[in-house]
Design goal:
By secondary structure, the protein is mostly helical. The protein contains 16 helices and no strands.
């Protein structure tokens, strides 16, 4: 019997297990320092492999569809931060200030890559445009996310240097990515052949960061600091944020006259936030701080967006095929 799409996937279940493990067996002391070095190395390897497997053709493919990409980038890097700020009167008393800062961090992140493309494909949207937009969002996010994080946190009185954040991101994330791009000519084919098991590098680095972050948070009393009421409110907050993003994406794409396939791409690429990028980036941006609370909204939002978008993709997939789709199936 196949698993329902409403149930968490294996990786999400593993994430939950890591949080539980960190809650009962947190790493601390000298072991925590060594674990931090291991985590940083895993993150560098992660972005090195991203650079090695992302072709230059994929980066520039479909770039001519600038109206679609501009709308998706605006949704990702403008709408989400504005929603995060506008919802403060509702979210701050509902989930507390610490989790609200985590929501702001979530709003500053780039879109997902794999799942956005997968859902666009399942829903029969514009897949080439989705590939280009998702890849570019992930790449530009290396620069835009630390800028947005600094601006959003400064609104709440936190200090920080945008340039320092960008330098840290560049050294720990962008530099390995560039080295991977350079090495692609030698290892690109190997990475392509082994992408099925190399995905465990992505997942493993996320699990390391989550375990380290929650270990530190547990040592500082995270579960005593966050009442059960606030955790329940966080579920509601993530659901409201996703619903507003989906509704706005759908309405704007219709108002701007995009066709059905493009509207599907905008919906799935403009409403999602990347766990794979957000967790390692939090490790860099918030080093020395308690990041367990900051990434908790992202982890929850990630699962909600997967379940909701899976249902939407299935609904779109059941629609009748259009004339261009039928013509594409006819042999020349």
């Amino acid at each position: 019997m196949s698993r329902s799409r409403l149930l968490p996937d294996n990786f999400t279940l593993t994430l939950i297990g890591v949080v539980v493990l960190a809650s009962f067996l947190p790493v601390n002391g000298q072991a925590a320092q060594g674990f931090g070095w291991l985590t940083n190395a895993a993150i560098a390897l992660l972005f090195f492999l991203h650079g090695a497997k992302l072709s230059r053709e994929a980066i520039i493919a479909g770039a001519g569809h600038w109206r679609l990409h501009l709308l998706i980038f605006s949704l990702t890097f403008v709408l989400f931060p504005l929603l995060g700020l506008a919802l403060k009167p509702l979210l701050s008393p509902l989930i507390g200030n610490d989790l609200y800062l985590g929501m702001l961090y979530l709003c500053a992140l780039p879109a997902t890559v794999q799942s956005a493309i997968a859902f666009t494909s399942l829903a029969r949207g514009n897949v080439p445009a989705a590939i280009c937009s998702a890849a570019a969002s992930s790449l530009f996010g290396i620069f835009l996310t630390p800028l947005l994080v600094t601006l959003l946190l400064n609104v709440h009185g936190d200090s920080g240097s945008t340039m320092d954040a960008i330098i840290k991101i560049s050294l720990q994330l962008l530099l390995p990515f560039i080295v991977g791009q350079i090495a692609r000519r030698w290892i690109g084919a190997w990475v392509g052949r082994n992408k099925n098991w190399l995905k465990f590098v992505d997942q493993g680095s996320i699990l390391l960061v989550v375990y380290g972050a929650f270990s530190k948070a547990v040592n500082e009393g995270i579960w005593q600091q966050i009442p059960l009421w606030n955790l329940g409110g966080l579920v509601l907050a993530c659901g409201v944020l996703l619903a507003l993003a989906l509704l706005t994406s759908s309405l704007l794409s219709k108002l701007l006259g995009f066709n059905q396939e493009d509207r599907i791409t905008i919906l799935f690429c403009g409403s999602k936030k990347s766990l794979a990028t957000g967790v390692p980036m939090a490790q860099v941006l918030f080093a020395g701080s308690t990041i367990g609370v900051l990434i908790l909204p992202l982890m929850l939002f990630h699962q909600i967006q997967l379940m909701v978008c899976a249902m939407l993709a299935q609904r779109y997939a059941r629609r009748p095929e259009s004339v261009p789709e039928l013509m594409a199936q006819v042999d020349p």
